[in-house]
Amino acid sequence: QVQLVESGGGLVQAGGSLRLSCAASGRTFSEYGMGWFRQAPGKEREFVAGISWTGGSTYYADSVKGRFTISRDNAKNTVYLQMNSLKPEDTAVYYCATKGSRLYSDYSASANYAYWGQGTQVTVSS
User: Fold this and answer.
1) 3-state helix/strand/coil string of 11-80
2) What is the per-residue pLDDT for 67?
3) Is it the case that residue 28 has pLDDT exceeding 90?
């Protein structure tokens, strides 16, 4: 059974930083792409960042490009999201997810992910 557990969320002032972690278990972590999504109150879940199974390719939503960095440590079965220069509009529940297939597919499409974590709350105050 695949499990994804996010951590690192919290309350931070605008301009601050947080690092989210997502620990995976139950499958060969290093063989699958990973992604981060977020959902703000009253809004649909949206793509934030994605990373290939090797870590050699990364993908970002325009809204976070230049501020957020996704990375992974396959030895620790963990993917990270470093978030800098946080803005109030970054406030959301952040979810990590793992791809359902080893084949390439659009990282920004939530339908291409098979397993999801429970989410971690990030709140940015102005």
Assistant:
1) EEECCCCEEEEEEEECCCHHHCCEEEEEECCCCCCEEEEEECCCCCCEEECCCCCCCEEEEEECCCCEEE
2) 98
3) no
